[in-house]
Amino acid sequence: MTELSQSRRRRFQFAKSSRSAGLFSIEDFRRRARRALPPMVFDFVDGGAEDEITVRGNETCFHDWWLRAQSLNDVSLRDQSIQLLGQSLPTPLILAPAGLAGLVWPKGEAAAAAAASKAGIPFALSTASSCSIEEVRESADGCLWLQLYLWQDREATGNLVDRARNVGYDALCLTVDVPLSGSRERDLRNGMTIPPRVGLKNALGILSRPRWMGKMVSAPVTFANFNEGHRGRTMALGEYVNGQLNPSASWDDLRWLRAKWPGSLLVKGVIDPESARRLVDEGVNAVIVSNHGGRQLDGAIPAIAALSEVVDAVAGRIPVLMDGGVRRGTDVIKAVALGASACLIGRPYLWGLAVDGEEGVSRVIELLHNEIDRDLALLGTPTIAEIHGRADRFLMDARSHVRSPGHREPE
């Protein structure tokens, strides 16, 4: 391992605050976040569309793969660093765009971006953020991506692109799987609005979290990237988003954006191999296999299940990233073995944010980094580069090797 790799490992030795003490997994952070947030805010982060089949599938489909460890390899020195879009990252992790992170912690996007910057990994800012493009850049000197949609108002989209360029964002991340907003029934039942308002449906839940209420008083949540943010504060979330979502967005709009933005352009929300193939031809720099965390089309293919076909379609011409359901270091390793260059995490860092702000996000990153490091050792493989695209060597399809109890092969 090089000195640079060793220094990267040291960067993940974060101090553990009292709020993160005793939390040893992403699921631990999820449970603690449930206790910290009002039920309707927790549901906003945790939930998905309709019956949440895809939300569950994103996680459970990782179980379809077993890992095959190698024997008697020297793994005393390990390196999980990668090269992505011309940048060196110490671990194949990226903080995914997540709208209105300020609901779980004051100035949540700025806090998460600062944690990502300290860890040396990219942070993707959602268009629908509670901190502005400029505020987040002021809080983090690391790699920043701006996520955006092809709004009906092309001038508004262009304005976001110009602002990102002016303050030095490294890439655009275009989300293409939201022509209309999915039906997130938890939010509808809870009467979710921005900012949350006390009503008959949610009064007890909000009042039961006085610490959260105290934080929100000092940092009210708005759609900070829009001049009409004062309107967003009083409108239901779905109504606000639906006002600009564009079901007529087309390949022509993508070409307009590609011509306007000279830097790296990633497209997120790709689960169809033919679409991925065409995106390469249109000049995008990377695709992200994602179903929007199960928050849009319920029943959509789980991200890990869609990954191999997209990787095959792209055929190594650009990087393929994956977003959805990552909860363990072994999930990252499975995705990398199936051809992903890196994985995005969304809910895990929001749970960390809810527990302990910037320090909670740092702890979540540290947990996953350390799990990947340990998993490399247990796999008998010192570098994650050796795993990339090698499902034939490191994975076994669990579904094709299930045997019933007492099963015996015929003689």
Structural write-up:
42% of the residues lie in helices and 11% in strands. The protein has helices at residues 3-10, 26-36, 39-46, 53-60, 108-119, 133-139, 154-166, 185-190, 203-207, 210-218, 229-232, 237-242, 251-260, 273-281, 303-314, 329-337, 347-379, 391-394, and strands at 65-67, 82-84, 87-89, 93-95, 123-125, 144-148, 171-175, 264-270, 286-289, 320-323, 342-345, 395-397. The chain contains 18 helices and twelve strands. The chain has a single domain, classed as TIM Barrel (Alpha-Beta Barrel). It has 411 residues and is α/β, with parallel strands linked by helices.
**Beginning-to-end CA distance, first to last residue:** 50 Å
**CATH topology category name:** TIM Barrel
Instruction: Please report the first level of CATH classification, the CATH class.
Output: Alpha Beta
Task: Determine the number of helices (DSSP H or I, runs of at least 4 residues).
Answer: 18
Assign the CATH architecture. Alpha-Beta Barrel
- Count the beta strands: 12
Can you give the mean pLDDT? Answer: 89
How many discrete domains?
Answer: 1
Sheet with most strands: 8 strands, parallel
How does the overall form come out from the CA principal axes?
globular
**SSE string, helix = H, strand = E?**
HHHHEEEEHEHEHEHHHHHHEHEHEHEHHE
Integer-rounded radius of gyration: 21 Å
The CATH superfamily appears as Aldolase class I
Sheet with most strands: strand arrangement: 4-11-10-9-8-7-6-5
Low-confidence stretches: 1-11, 229-234, 404-411
